[in-house]
Design goal:
Elements lengths: L12 E5 L4 H12 L4 E5 L18 E4 L4 H13 L3 E3 L2 H7 L2 H10 L7 E4 L2 H11 L3 E4 L10 E3 L2 H12 L8 E5 L6 E8 L2 E9 L14 E4 L4 H13 L4 E9 L3 E8 L5 H7 L3 H14 L1
Helix pairs in contact: 1-9
The structure holds adenosine-5'-diphosphate and magnesium ion.
The site of adenosine-5'-diphosphate (ADP) has 19 residues, from strand 6 and strand 13.
Length: about 290
């Protein structure tokens, strides 16, 4: 039997978390304000019996908001397997959670991405970089907030970083490298809910940082939603069968808009602050609509 361990009983609409950030708090508050019964489930308290024969999770709508990648993906797999409708589904989580997987899917479907390659040894990485030239961007295939993303300026830096990585968890032995995209000192974060692009911001890098992540001191400004931006983001969301995603794009001087990441547990605090769009409410409404289907 699968069980959600809570005293207040089960609800059809649920939010699964491991940390309560601004985003989770605002979603919970929005539901409360609108008298919508949304149950908050702490992932750390879950005991999921995987050979479930009762239908406890069938038709439950669960918004996956765990920050931890492995926790998020595995709890999604378990709950989806037990019959729940996860937002986002396991497919989205697997494909978007890994930059190499999402890169391949996007480029297969004709969405422009930064030029990238992967390799599995230091010598092959150095060989691959010859095509791109320096500087080159190295990224962990799994990660966020700009962590462990490096700008490598020469062969010495490549050797040093890759040697460090050899002593890390095996996922870091996959070398995923991108051409450094020539662009303004900003990128675009666009939020898609259901089949709509609901808001977008420019994120300018701060603190002498080349990365534009807000977690690294980036500054947000309103970004107009053009037809081109809308088409790209809606196609990207569709490719990944996603309900709610944050699509990150750069304005490449040579190639136009390129998608470098699709976030399946996206943060949107700054997007709400800058655009005034009530994203928590749109997410709750989307959950209600899914439940009705
Ligand atoms: N190929 C690239 N060229 C130039 N800047 C990049 C490139 N890739 C990423 N960046 C910058 O680094 C930031 C973090 O990269 P991203 O792929 O979104 O990783 P994370 O998941 O850590 O946010 C981006 O928002 C962008 O500002
Ligand atoms: Mg990003």
């Amino acid at each position: 039997m699968g069980t959600i361990n809570n005293e207040e009983g089960n609800s059809s609409l649920n939010i699964l978390f491991d940390n309560i950030r601004w985003e989770e708090k605002s979603i919970i508050e929005n539901a409360k304000k609108n008298d919508i019964d949304l149950k908050a489930i702490d992932c750390r308290e879950l005991v999921l019996f995987l050979n479930c024969e009762n239908k406890e999770f069938e038709n439950k709508v669960i918004l996956q908001r765990c920050v931890g990648y492995f926790k998020s993906m595995h709890s999604t797999a378990a709950l989806e397997g037990l019959g729940a409708r996860l937002i986002n589904p396991l497919y989205t989580s697997v494909m978007c959670g890994n930059k190499l997987f999402s890169h391949m899917e996007l480029q297969k479907q004709g969405i422009a991405t930064p030029n990238a390659f992967c390799s599995f040894s230091t010598s092959s990485a150095i060989e691959g970089i010859k095509k791109f030239g320096y500087p080159v961007v190295i990224k962990p295939t799994v990660g966020s907030w700009g962590r462990l993303i490096g700008l490598l300026n020469d062969e010495e830096a490549v050797k040093t970083v890759l040697e460090d990585r050899e002593h890390m968890f095996p996922i870091y032995h996959v070398n995923y490298l991108e051409e450094f995209v020539k662009r303004p000192p900003r990128d675009i974060r666009a939020i898609v809910v259901g089949d709509q692009i609901v808001a977008a911001i420019y994120r300018y890098s701060g603190n002498n940082e080349w990365k534009t992540n807000m977690a690294l001191g980036g500054r947000a400004e309103l970004c107009p939603v053009t037809k081109e931006l809308e088409d790209i983001c809606l196609t990207a969301a569709k490719i990944f069968k996603a309900d709610v995603v944050g699509v990150d794009l750069m304005e490449s001087i040579n190639h136009g808009l390129v998608v470098h990441e699709v976030n399946n547990t996206t943060e949107f605090k700054n997007t709400v602050r800058v655009t005034g769009v009530d994203i928590p409410s749109l997410i709750v409404n989307h959950m209600v609509n899914i439940l009705k289907k």
